[in-house]
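Supplementary material to the annual report.
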Amino acid sequence: MGSQVMKAPGGTAAVAPSYARRSRQLRRLVPIYLFLLPGMALFLTWQLYPLADAFVMSFFHWNLLEPSTFIGLNNYQRALSDPLFWQSLRNVVVYTVITVPGQMVLGLAAALLLDQSLRFRAVFRTLYYLPVITSWVVVSIMFTYLYNSQAGPLNYLLDDVLHIIPNYQIWLGDPNTALPSIATMGIWKGTGWNMVIFLAGLQSIPREVYEAAKVDGAGAIKRFTHITLPLLRPTTTFLVVVLVIGGLNTFIPVWIMTQGGPIHSTETILTYMYKKAFADIDLGYGAAISYLFTALIFLISVAEIRILRRRYEY
Amino acid sequence: MRRLLLSFLAIVCLSLAMAPAAHVAASKSVGSSLHGTVNYWNAYGNGNSAEAQALTTKVIPAFEKKYPGIHVKNLSLPYDGFFTKLLTSLAGGTGPDVIRSDIVWVPQLANIRAIVQLDKTSWFKAYAKQVFPGTLSTNFFKGHYYGLPLDTNTRVLIYNKTVFNQAGIASAPTTTAQLVADCAKIKALGGGHYCYAEGGTGAWNVLPWIWSFGGSITDGRYRTAAGHLNDKGTVAAIKFLVDLYKQGYLSPSILGGGLSTTDCMGKNLCGMILDGPWMVPIFKASYPDLQSGLSLVPKGPGSGSHSVVGGEDIVEMSQSRNKPAAEAFIRFVLSPQAQIWMGNVGQMPVLKSLSGSKQLPSYFGIFQKQLKVAEPRTPSPHWSSIDDIISTEVQRALRGDASPQSAMNDAARQVNALLH
Amino acid sequence: MARRFLGKTTLYLLAIFGALVLAMPFIYLVSTAFTPNAYVLSIPPVLIPAHPTVQNFIDAWTTNNFGRYFINSAVVAGSSTAITVLFSAMLAFAFARYSFPGRTVLFYGMLLTLMIPTLVLIIPQFVLAKTLHLLDSLQGLVVVYSAGTALNVFLLRGFFEDIPQDLADAAAIDGAGIWTVFWQIMMPLARPALAAVTIFTFLTNWDEFPWALTSISSGDNFTLPIALQLFQQQHQTQYGVEFAASLIAVVPVIVVFILFQRHFVSGLASAAVKG
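Predicted assembly:
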């Protein structure tokens, strides 16, 4: 990044004297850094510093009112040998594997559907976006009501109306159905968000490309697989990375609907960390759990970006 | 990649230098006469709740009238999140002076020295003598008293008279055997009726049964769970619940995801629940047509009726900068007048002198009777984990994943590890 | 494109079906908000309440200071969204189109913060906020919320990268500095992406709860999410009132969405490039 060969206006390649080169470079870089400064300063102060601080504290027995004691890797060793840590990790991976593809597929379908010039398009988009704008807290309370095993509308619909299930199910009280139930809610809530992002992505594909392809005789499916999908690559990459991070970080729905139960079948890393850190006042341990988890997410995300990311010229 | 690591290392080293020191919060105290501000945090709910009203329109004004120099700044927070907010405020040294603390938080707060040992003050003894011993003991931790009780409660049997009439049950059961017999009658009603509903499997939920069957969590000194959490009485209590569940007498809401006990009772679908004094005003507001009655927790074979002590304690934070004023406020909320004001909105007083008082709601009587045979939960800083272990193991027993005995054996083993 | 693939009627039917599934719980939310509390959770469930009432809304609005909390949230969410979107766009633009020492480190650093469970940071952040005098004030909230640029930067960088180089080169030859290129050329081109980012950022800041609860210690400064949480009391929740309050709280978010979603309609000025 440091040294570049600059072309003199005459057209002949010449290596300028060092000081001139460096001052030219500085002149180029200073406006960039100034441009970055406001956003970066805020970010570094507020996010990166506490991040490092909490990381350091994960090696301590973190006391609030007295000096903390250094205990090295103790918190990390405890976490790695804690069956509930692994159970939470398993749960949250399952949740992510269900919700991410689910909401992406449905979101893309909705975006394709509503990219057409249908009448009332804006109305449909708003309706599809309703789950997204309703806060997680309200949605969780709503679905707790919907999933109610004695008086919930879902059981009523599936049993009394459609006769698909034999009797009322205890959706949230059965370790086998609790996590999938919450995951279904996650897909429901995220579809609209995916739709919005895909819509923005679809807009950035110029119409000419489609026109050219149509002229070349490409059918609808071929245009989709050869133009739309590849050109949506940055959007898809973004969504995969962000949704996986979000899915692994699930907290509110579980906290409100099942508190991690029954029998820890819906316990996520975050609910577990929160209980350890704040209910048990074991903040160093909570930090260790968080950073182990973060390392995992970081590796997964970098892998995703490397695999999915590619630039397109057209 | 190398640059990435180097930069991160730099930030880490910087933080290493600063971090541990940054987490020792300074606390100064302004020792002087009674004036200034007292910051009081509680979870009485928003301004619509009767308790918050009573506090802000009666108790606090009366206190400020008595001590014109002191201003009480009241902050009513959501219950969920209260403890976390308290902990972060400790880290920053911006916490309150006095809090209304759930009794299970007291050992934890005492353990990290966040609250003051009130028994070291000159006035403590006089006030300690005035309250019920059982309620006072919820403030005890490792040899000292860290607060005073503020309000107390327990769980009694609340039964639905309409459902009882329909099932042909004359009066509330006084023994667990009678309860099972009554359950059969209610089950015969069919159609979504359940005999008994319980909101969860935590200690608060199952302890009345465990104790009423003669079991316990630990020994009397709270030192060991082995041989107690898995003794005959405890296992019998769990088996009792498992049998109720298997026979369809116990509402599946105990595992989560069903009707709340309030709604089940209010909609005349449940015959009995265990709950506290707050239910009386709640039923009046939400289900005014409900016909209900109150009775003691049924006793198990060879044992008496026992229930669990709940309530809140009033404690002083060590970081308080206005301890004299804070302590004046604590003394005031324990005065008979303040206790009666809060008593009238469902907060049962802790003063012995007010027992049976005509100025209090009449339904307090049964709760006070139950309180005489109610026990506190294990005072341990690890209570949250202990509760979780008990809850999980009872769930496993209910679902049939483990027999009551083996589930309780597992529980005793895990809880033991935490007590040592 | 898909129109030739499926008939128009099918498209409408699909759209309506999707709308029903996605909107149905919300319809129940509205229905419950108009239901008196004793009739909530009735069996069988009813979509249209038998005894509709507006009492829940009255109760919600008159619960102490609800109106004031609403305004607090509006002020905080509004200003922090504007600042966040601006800063995010600036950062994303610089990351996308300029090379400079530290670019990779900073970008991955921002990504890293997305992966940390934010709850674990709350104590260091609290101590930091105390030092910087950002506690217990609406301005403090605005500053803190404005630091949440990471997700937006990640999204916007992709969009800025895809804008063809010709435009930027043309501007550079004309002697435009980084700010001019950003403001006059890039921002208009990224309008759909900026609209999306505005919608999401406003939603996030409007609903933010953990930090608001932690940093605010005066009842006057509460924001709406805290007020909503107060409806869930220790021993009971009155669903009717809570849902009514949530409905009131959701109105600004819907408004912001409707206002900004029309930017998804126009395509990009690709013609200006190809020419």
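Residues 20-32 of chain B have pLDDT under 50 and may be disordered.
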